[in-house]
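Why predict the complex rather than its parts? Because the way molecules touch one another can change local conformation, and only a joint prediction can capture that. The input here totals 399 residues.
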Amino acid sequence: MKTRHKRLAWVLGALTLLGAATALVLNAFQDNLVFFHTPSEVADGKVPQGRNFRVGGMVEAGSLQRSTDGLSVSFRITDTAKAIPVSYRGPLPDLFREGKGAVAQGTLNADGKFVATEILAKHDENYMPPEAIDAIDRAHKTATTVKQ
Amino acid sequence: MNLFHYASPQTFYPLAGRLVPVFAVLAALLAAAGLYLGFFVAPTDAQQGEVYRIIFIHVPAAWMSMFIYLVMAFWSAVGLIFNTRLSHMMTRALAPTGALFCFVALWTGALWGKPTWGTYWVWDARLTSQLLLQFLYFGYLALVHAIEDPRRADRAGAIIALVGAVNVPVIYFSVQWWNTLHQGASVSLSKAPSMATTMLWGMLLMALAAWAYTIAVSLARVRGIMLERERRTDWAMAEIARAGAAGGARA
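Output of the joint prediction:
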């Protein structure tokens, strides 16, 4: 075995060990590495009890209600399987829309309502001009009418 | 052709000198085309409005910051295994550019985050691992500059570069492995891009410009490093004398 083969073996061996160690550590801290929990996890009680956490998903279409003072809102956050009601008082980000992603930080109260202290909008990976969105909406409508 | 022919500073120096202007011009042309496409031709985004145009800078910078780190790890491994001086010099020449791109990616991301997410910064897995990459770059640069003896500095730097490389796949896959506020990849090798065509082209041209720029500046930088380290050798003294003569003639 030449010296440089020995050194190659050392480098590869060390990197493999390091990679494996990192994978194990990241796997062990899986729960702490997620930025938000899903409504399903909340329903299963897999969320930290009695302290702040974040819940994320889609803002359910048609669920957004604004109060008369114009500052308080309530809506439902869904992951299509489960949904939880959220109430919030404060300014919403510009990209906060029904049917789009959002992340709320706050606590779950006794009757299962999530009281948020901060709302962030989550953008998806789609970048399109408005005309393309219109075209998709039209195609979608045609498809649903055809089905009926 | 024997690749090892160019592994010695003496033969690589003139080759790098010829390549620098080629890639510099290429970078300028690609960036001009990419910026024109990105800021004048590409349509407004339906959800975000004009603020999305930050991707023409942000995404190429972020890609480059990760890729440069992997290249540094590669040259470090080659340097450690084959004991080639030039490999370590390449690692060192790439580091400042990688740190710059990482810095640009973090800042443009923060400026985009405020109007879209509603916050400049969150500690989600993508943002945190990218910040770690910035610290790895700074750590590498601080370490190699703190050690006087170039051979020991190269060794120590190579170890940081190799160990830190583990972070790069974590950054890239963080948006798949964990729930993050940062969105998933719009462009990847495994699926069709979820992006309008002109937007995509603008971004790809900017990415190519970033590549050409990186090649140009790192080759220019490695020429400086080669001359400095080999200043007591005949070829370097001849180069320095020639540069001095040319400079004198011009003045």
